[in-house]
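Running this now, will post back.
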Amino acid sequence: MGVIIDEHLTWSHHINLVANKIAKNIGVIKKIAHLLPSKTLIGLYYSMVDPFLVYGNIVWAANYQTRLNCLTLLQKRALRVITRDTYYAHTEAKFLELGILKFTNINIYLIGNFVYRFCNNLLPPYFNSFLIKIHVVHDHYTRNRDNFAIQYARTNYRKFSLRCRGPEVWNLIPLNLRDLKTFYSFKRNWKKYMIHDYLAILETVIILIHNMLEQILGNSLSDVEALRCGI
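Update: finished.
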């Protein structure tokens, strides 16, 4: 499949290419959907749509939502085709029923997998010092001292990098998942958590947005609110 890298690292060319390939494959599936059982259609989704959404996602899908929106819509269209729903049918329940990760959550899921492998020395030696624990940065005893230190990002492109997003995602994963002994069990339970715990996911997204706003505005949200109120 490959990944197209542009000079400004916007990934726009790659996203457009992926969108075109998925749209064509959805058209193929739609033409034969009435002839096939549901189980076969789900298999076609995982062979003709999902690989394009997942391949290299950990790099190019850490991006502005406006650039990725076309892929979110295409995934929903694919889901309606394989479930034989109408064009405007809601897809929320279908994602849960089929156990399919939403495109907006695939990147978070893959980042979690990466950091788990980092914590358990399952990555090449190059990544040995890729992330830093808080207790290495300072020796104050806090309840979060075993979390990873959040990297400062002056630009949005730096903020989108794995070195910055990795700690943000990992620090929000429940400890009972982080402490699982094997990568297989972590992947399986982490995916279940991402699919079923909608409230937890919403909280994760809110905190990530909060952190991004702090970096973009250069002030904490509380400081901004204080300025607005004239305090």
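The CA atoms of residues 18 and 117 lie 27 Å apart. More later if anyone needs it.
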